[in-house]
Specification:
Elements lengths: L2 H11 L5 E4 L4 H10 L6 H12 L8 E6 L1 H4 L9 H7 L3 E5 L4 E3 L7 E3 L5 H11 L3 E8 L8 H21 L2 E8 L7 H21 L8 E2 L16 H15 L6 E4 L6 H15 L9 E6 L1 H11 L6 H19 L11
Parallel strand pairs: 1-2, 1-10, 2-3, 3-6, 6-7, 7-8, 8-9, 9-10
Antiparallel strand pairs: 4-5
Helix pairs in contact: 6-7, 7-8, 8-9, 9-10, 10-12, 11-12
Length: 343
Amino acid sequence: MNAQELIDTARTLVAGDKGLLAMDESNSTCNKRFAKLGIPQTEEARRAYRELIVTTPGLGECISGAILYDETIRQQKKDGTPFVKAIIEAGIIPGIKVDTGAKDMAGHPREKITEGLDGLRDRLKEYLEIGARFAKWRAVIAAGDGLPSRGCIEANAQALARYAALCQESGLVPVVEPEVLMDGDHTLERCREVTEEVLRRVFDQLYTQRVTLEAMILKPNMVLPGLTCAKQETVDEVADATVRCLLRVVPAAVPGIAFLSGGQSGELASARLNAMHVRSKSPNSRLPWALAFSFARAIQQPALEIWRGEESHILAAQQALYHRASCNRAARRGEYNAAMERI
């Protein structure tokens, strides 16, 4: 492990006003989204869609890193150029999702444990050789109705930390993603309690596994009420609750926090990130880490709905993708507003 190289890469991923594009949907997830829009669920359709994304003009102005899936990192543009090369030429750092998904956790009904540690060292070595410079592992935590259990939190925290240690050993920056899910009717305050507990356990395990905090990125959820909660707090209330929670549990050594969108609309995700940055500009509100984004659907969905598998729609889809990425770039500067959505 070259610690300084990892630290430099981690800082670059969250530098300035850029963020990450999560385009790491599994084949099954991608196929489900295609099916809803009448797009063929084939490898070629997935390749064509990913080519649309990586060739979007100007994407590197807003995006610092792209998280790929195993299929995607091995694919090529129609002209034979590897996607990894196209991404690098766009000024974007290639990354890779390395977990194998969240599975039912034995002894813990309604809870999940993320798998993929078996053989991970060898897979990381291969991804590094292909061109990846960072990786991602997602754990999912359900809130509400007696959940989460301590066993679920501890098991996922340990897996995240073991993954992170293996990444750094292999020369990859780990993106650590413990997601408290939006599903349910839990309150914003309950989300804050669970998020705080989860992050405490995750950082306990990161310390135990000797992970270099300066060479990692945290990818958490924002602190939000459940989707079916009767009370839905304002953008400003969400921003305040999220920042207060993170200040209590995320060490200053971590260079950056890149929020997942977690099912939020693109507009809400941008607005909430923007509100955090507006507050961070106050002289009394300086934050120890960068606040960035690592969005998937909140950037991709409009483009996918325009494209629908039609080659003649590629340019319009790319314009929509660039627009959403630009909105999040503006949000990182505290300059996003609803008027941008009418352009």
